[in-house]
Amino acid sequence: MEDLLELDDQLTPEHRMIRDTVRRFVSERVLPHVGEWFERGVFPGRELAPELGSLGLLGMHLEGYGCAGLDAISYGVACRELEAGDSGLRSFVSVQGSLAMFPIWKYGSEEQKQEWLPRLASGEAIGCFGLTEPDHGSDPGSMRTYAKQDPSGDWILNGSKMWITNGSIADVAVVWAQTDSGIRGFIVPASTPGFSAQEIHRKLSLRASVTSSLHFDDVRLPASAVLPGVTGLKGPLSCLTEARYGILWGVVGAARACLEAAVDYARTRIQFGKPIGAFQLTQRKLAWMAVALGQAGLTALHLGRLKEAGRLKPRQVSFGKLANVRAALDIAREARSILGANGITLEYPVIRHMTNLESVLTYEGTEEVHTLVLGEALTGVAAYR
Predict the structure, then answer these.
(1) pTM for this structure?
(2) Catalytic choice (83, 133, 364, 368)
(3) The domain spanning residue 164 has which CATH number?
(4) Quick one: 338 and 362 in the same domain?
(5) pLDDT digits (tens, 9 = 90+) for 313-353
(6) Where do the Acyl-CoA dehydrogenase/oxidase C-terminal domain residues begin and end (predicted)?
(7) Which is more confident, 3 or 46?
(8) Count H helices, E strands: the chain?
């Protein structure tokens, strides 16, 4: 399909190499199977993690400790190509790199970094990020999970987390909890007594992804389990900013896959003696889908350049997440209408992307929360409460 704005011409040769490498991996290892994974509600994370690690995709935007140390646009392009396969695949890589590895890399001790980052980068170990709770999603500052230090210096962790990607296959969880001195991050190995994880089933979105609940029942952790470099909501929110950056690129890939499917179908589906792509109403749909895709791609590229320059602000990431996910979801829905009844089958990628994007619209900041972030930026007035 033609890139109407020729956006990939703006990429460096290294970015294009990453694009082609990830696209080939997705084409060979994911697309032949992802429809079946989605239908069965499974994701072979243990099998894919070492392969993703060998490609340098886990924590690829981090420096040292076995990480690739690539730039922001490289990370974005990789997320775009991964999500062109499936949002669950990009979520796996995003959670591993931006939500499990990034807080250890940014706020961890040298011992914590040496212990976990090389294993997570290679895919030998899988990580998850415990912030959202059953009763506290958009308001993480009200979390109930609590850690208290006893006279021995150990921490005792109690509480639960919900909607945790990778949770029940993770070797380690980065868990955020209230303490007497504010919210702190804790590195919790999955083998720690009192820690348990259950996979959430009966999902109709992100089915090719492991989603779990985490439970902590008097989990005893040494003092060395605390991330020493941050206290307060700044810690988890900075991690979410990293992950949301990957999302605003990733959904461009999902949208592109839907538009490509719609264009191919419109060229070959014959009705009233000619392809449906020859009808004006269909061409109008395709044209506006292409416009929305181009605008989302421009937004991602611009924010990537700001990030590389060290100028990217959280509210700009909110802008990208809000605009690009909504655009991708609109494109997926329009593509579904072009495919008609065939659009609801897993013979085509559209319904899978469409239902996945319903979750992407919500996770890591709902559409409503990002709207309020922009409202506050424009008016100077916070309207969250």
Answers:
(1) 0.96
(2) 364
(3) 2.40.110.10
(4) yes
(5) 999 999 999 999 999 999 999 999 999 999 999 999 999 99
(6) 232-378
(7) 46
(8) 12, 9
